[in-house]
């Protein structure tokens, strides 16, 4: 929504067809292409980006945002974590970032060749560098996204710049599809964990993506967007 509001044409991929249908109703068809796709599956990603290439009609892709993942990091005791559950977390974040980046590179290079600024923003997590108990697969997936970011930055430059954003606590309840939407009433102690005095909002992440896209001398970096939460010591009471 942030980039659409700034006048961009926006393509979006999601495996939740119901959520995409609601978003289609909110955006003009000529400015948005919304496709059902499981971004953790190679064949679906290839087909989706073929469609995006057709939609761009010879133009390049300026910016790719890899923002998929399983929101709940809790996996339970390590000895009880099944391999397929582990793989689901890895595929949702790390494999998906690889697959979408691989498919997008030709379109991003086309944008750069036409004089534009081509960038990738990988949405990692503060959990890539600090952990909650029993969140092994989520932390590993996001740590992998961080590593993939700097590996791509040194390999795809100078045409394409790649950076990572590590969100902290971002309240997405009001942005969910209608059947899952919520408006949490955060406690004072929740807000007090953040030196900025509030919980994060999706637009905080969108603004960071916009910064990285415009910042032509910045690549291979990892930015915590967490209201200062990870630099504040929290004491048990």
From TrEMBL:
Keyword entries, A-Z: Oxidoreductase
Keyword Oxidoreductase listed: yes
Region (Disordered), start-end ranges: 173-198
Compositional bias segments (type: Basic and acidic residues): 182-198
Residues annotated as transmembrane: none
Source taxon at top rank: Bacteria
Keyword GTP-binding carried by entry: no
One Pfam entry name: adh_short_C2
Assigned protein family: Belongs to the short-chain dehydrogenases/reductases (SDR) family.
Name of the protein: SDR family oxidoreductase
